[in-house]
Design goal:
Structural class of chain A: alpha+beta
Pfam family, one (chain A): ATP-synt_DE
Helix content of chain A: 25-40%
Distance between the termini of chain B: 26 Å
Strand content of chain A: 35-45%
Protein name (chain A): ATP synthase epsilon chain
Helix content of chain B: 55-70%
Function (chain A): Produces ATP from ADP in the presence of a proton gradient across the membrane.
Family (chain A): Belongs to the ATPase epsilon chain family.
Shape of chain B: elongated
Domain ATP synthase epsilon subunit C-terminal (chain A): 86-131
Order of helices and strands of chain A: EEEEEEEEEEHH
Oligomer: heterodimer
Number of strands of chain A: 10
Strand content of chain B: 5-15%
CATH architecture of the largest domain in chain A: Sandwich
CATH class of the largest domain in chain A: Mainly Beta
Radius of gyration of chain A: 16 Å
Chain lengths: 132, 290
């Protein structure tokens, strides 16, 4: 089985670098699956989970936006933050979720609302990935 | 009795200098370890920024897609980001930046309406406040090893100011870390993004598919890129800060050592003089008795 070299990179350093058979992530237009020998591609990612498959094993990474860059033998995910499922701080994500919900409840101006919505989305994504 | 009193004085000064030396020595060692950590942080940021730059350069070079961040416009207002430390005792680290910054502002602007300041670090913030310069945003008390999350808000708001045309140009001042003993004040224009080299684009995968379109990608990619540049400058600045503090503390330790040597010499001389004087007095006394 052919494999792809996958690296997930954030400003605080690489999160993951390994070989996998398939990468599935959530692009802005829907889910996208990458197999080896994919055509070179660049696409923005939504806040969501990235599934990395090799054999019967699947790894999950929570990605907060960013980019996917695909080359025939290499996939790079550039995100402002990303965590492997096992590295997620569930307590912190719960707190962030609660904070965001509180802020959404108390109706403030537009920008704050958007920001709260985004952080709620990130927190929920982390929690979902952590439960995998 | 005079010599005894001055002996005690010198002894006291030696002791207090010795104590100061212990403190500066400890601070030197702390800064050294912080510096190597900061250096490591800066290094782990490199793959991210390089990759990002590569993709941006690629799109900029291979497509007609444009974006306000890539285009120069008439500068009515300039935003300045100044990266300083929160604490002093770092030698010329802060004063170098602030001097360069102040000179630039004096030279380029005649009125305070023409620019606005984003201050990272307490020293820079207080410098501007004291001179009544316009600070719009500031972040104080950053950790010694900052995360991207710590400055994400500031960075994205700053980039947003450019997008909203509140500012037409964004310039950053920081100390670039060359080595442990050398840091250079660096001035960089972050926005509009102009200095993107195409890099080695002759490679096989020279043509990417862009999903959904180049414009959409630039719209999300460029702010992310600009934010990463601010973070990169901050990491560089932090490494420089620790290096500058380490050097300053090393100098202080060396000076203390020199002072202790001088004082010890003076102490021994005074002791010797005291003894000589006592002997002379005894001999004088004996001579008088005979």
């Amino acid at each position: 089985m052919k494999t792809l070299e996958v690296s997930v990179v954030t400003p605080d350093g690489p999160v993951l670098e390994d070989n996998f058979e398939m990468v599935v992530c959530k692009a802005e237009n829907g889910e996208i699956g990458i197999l080896p020998q994919h055509i070179p591609l660049v696409t923005p990612l939504d806040i969501g989970e990235v599934r990395l498959k090799s054999g019967n094993d699947t790894k999950f990474v929570a990605v907060n936006g960013g980019f996917l860059e695909v080359r025939p033998d290499k996939v790079t995910i550039l995100a402002q933050s990303a965590e492997k499922a096992e590295d997620i701080d569930v307590a912190r994500a719960e707190q962030a979720k609660k904070r965001a919900e509180d802020r959404l409840q108390s109706k403030q101006d537009h920008i704050d609302f958007q920001r709260a919505e985004l952080s709620l989305k990130r927190a929920m994504n982390r929690l979902r990935v952590a439960q995998r | 009795m005079n010599s005894l009193a001055s002996l005690r004085d010198i002894k006291q000064r030696i002791d207090s200098t010795e104590k100061t030396k212990h403190i500066t020595k400890a601070m030197e060692m702390v800064s050294a370890s912080k510096m190597s950590k900061a250096e490591e942080n800066a290094r782990s940021f490199v793959p991210y920024s390089e990759k990002l730059q590569e993709v941006v350069a690629h799109i900029a070079a291979h497509s007609d897609a444009t974006h306000p961040m890539l285009q120069k416009r008439d500068v009515k207002k300039t935003g300045y980001v100044i990266v300083t430390s929160d604490r002093g005792l770092a030698g010329a680290y802060n004063s170098n930046i602030l001097r360069t910054f102040h000179q630039t502002v004096e030279k380029r602007h005649t009125s305070k309406d023409e620019y606005t300041i984003i201050a990272i670090g307490r020293i820079g913030y207080e410098f501007c406040k004291k001179r009544d310069l316009p600070v719009v945003k500031s972040i104080l008390g950053l950790a010694d090893q900052p995360n991207f999350a710590d400055i994400k808000k500031l960075a994205s708001e700053t980039v947003q100011m450019y997008t909203d045309e509140e500012i037409d140009e964004l310039v950053i001042f920081y100390n670039h870390y060359v080595s442990a003993i050398s840091q250079v004040v660096t001035t960089k224009t972050l926005l509009p993004i102009t200095d993107i080299e195409a890099g080695e684009t002759g490679s096989v995968e020279s043509q990417y598919e862009y999903e959904p379109s180049e414009e959409t990608i630039l719209k999300t990619l460029l702010p992310q890129y600009a934010e990463s540049l601010i973070y990169g400058a901050l990491l560089d600045g932090k490494a420089s800060e620790h290096a500058a503090r380490m050097t300053a503390m090393k100098n202080a330790t060396d000076n203390a050592e020199e002072l202790i040597d001088d004082l010890t010499l003076a102490y021994n001389r005074a002791r010797q003089a005291g003894i000589t004087q006592e002997i002379t007095e005894i001999i004088g006394g004996v001579a008088a008795l005979e």
